[in-house]
Amino acid sequence: MKFLKDGKVAAAKEEHWIPLSDLMTGLMMMFMLVAIVFMVKVEAEAAVTKELKAKAEEQAKRVQQIAVLYDDMRNELYKSLDEEFKKDLKDWGADLDTDLTIRFREPDVLFDTSRAELKTRFKGILDDFFPRYVRILGRSEYKDSIEEVRIEGHTSGFWKDAKDEDDAYFKNMELSQQRTRTTLEYVLSKTNIFGYKRWIQSLLTANGLSSSKLRLNADKTENIAASQRVEFRVRTNADARIAQILMASQK
What we know:
It comes from Bradyrhizobium lablabi. Keywords: Membrane, Transmembrane, Transmembrane helix. InterPro entries: OmpA-like_sf. This protein is α+β, with helices and mostly antiparallel strands. It has helices spanning 6-85, 89-92, 107-110, 120-137, 140-143, 165-189, 197-201, 224-227, 238-249, and strands spanning 94-96, 101-104, 146-154, 204-208, 229-236. It has a 5-stranded mixed sheet with strand order 1-2-5-3-4. Helix 1 (6-85) packs across helix 4 (120-137) and helix 1 (6-85) runs antiparallel to helix 9. The chain starts with 5 loop residues before the first helix and ends with a helix.
């Protein structure tokens, strides 16, 4: 390329550098825009994280409050049951556990071997026990916190003439279910629960568990007599309340 005049050379250089300058300015503005968008995004994500953290903390606080509330209620209910029945449990061959289970543990008092009909002695115990039990559960401080009252029937793992362990288990399952049903029928139809019947009926269930929860000796062998028992167990609605909180937090 020949340069005829200095002015033309200068003009050519000027024409070359002006677009390059504009390009650099545009790139700088683009980088600044990207940086601003990135900063806004980071701040937005930080805000969302902060909000989620606050919700999680609030949720944990509410769950803890419910857990404490229900733990206090269970402790108070245990004290009420203990105060009511502590003089009778020994005579009945029964125990009260801190998990709110009342366990009738004398098989000779409850049923004849392989039979589901309640013995006269057990009927007399239920006549005394169940109305008092229902009146305690029906107190205003406990009533709304009870989800279920379970009658659980348990057997040993033994069954005479069973072909194998499975056969014994299924035969004992049928027996335990029959026993809890006859127990449920008796307490609902024969005991004096006037004024509480419809309420307790809505909560009461019969659960035959066969030999699935055996009682063991110190050497880990089965305690056959102790395994044969009937239990009344209270289940609170704390789990349902906590589940409601968790579901609400996901909306």
